[in-house]
Design goal:
Elements: H1 6-26, H2 37-40, H3 44-57, H4 59-74, H5 82-88, H6 94-118, H7 123-143, H8 147-175, H9 178-192, H10 195-209, H11 211-232
Length: 245
């Protein structure tokens, strides 16, 4: 887009696609599940406290939230380094950098489709193993000096990202009751919101060590954090029958 229609055209196209998405969402019909009406009349802060209590009461949800913070701080910000690595290390133009940046998204899309056809109920395992695959291939990408190899590694990282994303959302829906589900989803969104801090972190590393080494350091930190979570919450590795409320 940058090479052909320029920055203004690319942003205009993005705005048009978002507008189409809004129209499609507005066309959906939703029938809310029956909930305890008394629980809905609590004030804002009481709702947050109830959500936090529920998270603490369920070890699987607690583990998922901690890993979510870790990956949004120590993995997702890698994307901000793709233009830096593409230009400085791989000597790519805007088109090839765009293709490189889209490889992870393509892998995530295909991974989501594969998980949908798999019809598994092992979402805790999908989540934690997807997280590990994501970090490992991002780490491998940080060592790559070849364009084609970088494409393949980011595509494979995207498959892991699919497991992380699908497991994350599905665990909230299958493990929480209708009364607290909205609050837990809200807290999940809040924890995802640490990503801008992660961008500051990787930016600081890149300023001192370069983009490629910054991704290396950050993903090693992410793997250490994931390993700690793996030991603290071993039940994430075992199959637990899920049941949606």
């Amino acid at each position: 887009m940058l090479e052909t229609i320029g920055l203004h055209g690319a942003f205009l196209l993005g705005a048009a696609l978002h507008a189409i998405g809004i129209i499609l969402i507005l066309s959906l019909k939703y029938t809310p599940a029956s909930v305890n009406k008394e629980a809905l009349h609590k004030n804002f802060f009481a709702g947050i406290i109830d959500g936090l209590r529920f998270i603490r009461s369920d070890r699987t949800i607690m583990a998922m939230m901690v890993i979510t913070v870790a990956l949004n701080f120590l993995a997702m910000p890698f994307a901000s380094m793709i233009p830096v690595i593409g230009k400085e290390l791989l000597n790519l133009n805007a088109i090839h950098i765009g293709i490189l940046a889209s490889a992870e998204g393509l892998g995530a899309f295909i991974g989501c489709v594969l998980i949908a056809f798999w019809k598994t109920q092992r979402f805790a395992q999908v989540f934690i193993f997807g997280s590990a695959i994501y970090l490992l291939f991002l780490l491998s990408f940080s060592f790559s000096g070849l364009y084609i190899l970088s494409l393949i590694l980011l595509f494979l990282a995207g498959l892991g990202h699919a497991g992380f994303s699908v497991g994350q959302s599905t665990l909230v829906f299958t493990k929480s009751t209708p009364e607290v589900r909205g609050r837990v989803m809200g807290l999940l969104s809040m924890f995802i919101g640490v990503q801008p801090l992660g961008i500051l972190h990787i930016g600081f590393l890149a300023d001192h060590f370069g983009g490629s080494l910054a991704v290396t350091i950050m993903t090693v930190e992410g793997l250490i954090a994931l390993g700690i979570c793996w030991m603290v919450w071993p039940e994430m590795q075992r199959h637990e029958k899920q049941s949606a409320s």
